[in-house]
Design a protein that fits this description.
The structure is a single chain. The chain has about 250 residues and is of the alpha+beta class. The protein is built from eight helices and ten strands. Helix content is about 25%, strand content about 35%. The protein is elongated and about 65 Å long. The relative contact order is 0.15.
Length: about 250
């Protein structure tokens, strides 16, 4: 006969889901065993086995004399070079890369976007907002902008899951590189904090970048907010080998 309450596997999965969705934030100390047993409807021996499994997975840590804490997310080392690709950066560190489309629109370019893309103010551009994940943990939230006349199918293709790299290739751009990157810090606004699972007032790293084709003409401008406690940036000017093509679900 099955014992009363959740099994240790079910308890492990419930706690893991709480961590993944930010309801148990990094460095949170878990309640005492009796309270956890009540919260997750499980027996003490099942709870202990579930906690041990989560500790082995690197999701929890035990500090003797203090208790059990939610482990901090691993720091992503994002390398910025002449050919910077989201998926390749994460795969090289054993992390799964994925992206989620949040919004897309056609709009007149303001002075900032127009200057970055070499367009006239008011020229039509496509603006796309996406959220980037590393192992299902959100690490970035950003807008990308493209010339709507040069890439008239950008919005349609991106909605269909086609990567930016493939859209460029369909328009005769076989390769592209990073021309300029600007990084600064500021406090996350309420919307960013919610989508990136940050505490109110926590800092984000804002990254602005311009990509150009082989002739040096701007083809894309983007601005993203990155979770400051989960990402560090390394600039590698010696990077020369082409990186793997992005998959359809990449940012």
């Amino acid at each position: 006969m099955r014992s009363r309450g959740q099994t240790w596997q079910e308890t492990r999965d419930l706690i893991s889901e709480e961590i993944a969705h930010g309801r148990l934030a990094p460095d949170t100390r878990l309640p005492a065993e009796p309270e956890l047993c009540r919260l997750y409807n499980t027996r003490r021996h099942s709870l202990r086995r579930a906690l041990a499994a989560l500790q082995a997975e690197g999701k929890l840590r035990v500090e003797h004399g203090r208790g059990t804490f939610v482990e901090r997310a691993p720091l992503v080392n994002y390398v910025i070079g002449p050919r910077t690709r989201f998926r390749e950066n994460l795969l090289s560190q054993g992390l799964a890369a994925s992206g989620q489309g949040l919004a897309e629109t056609r709009m007149p370019a303001d002075i900032r976007v127009a200057r970055a893309l070499g367009l006239a103010v008011g020229a039509p551009v496509f603006a796309i907002c996406r959220r980037g994940f590393a192992n299902d943990l959100p690490i970035s939230l950003g807008w990308s902008y493209h010339d709507a006349e040069r890439f008239p199918d950008m919005l349609e293709k991106r909605k269909a899951g086609v990567s930016v790299t493939e859209v460029y290739r369909a328009h005769g751009i076989s390769d592209y590189r990073r021309l300029r990157t600007t990084i600064y810090t500021r406090s996350a606004n309420e919307h960013e904090a919610s989508l990136l699972m940050l505490r109110p007032g926590q800092s984000v790293l804002v990254v602005q970048k311009v990509d150009v084709d082989p002739e040096g003409r701007p083809i894309g401008f983007s601005e993203g907010a990155w979770a400051g406690d989960r990402v560090q940036f390394t600039f590698d000017s010696a990077q020369s080998e082409p990186l793997a093509t992005e998959r359809n679900d990449d940012v």
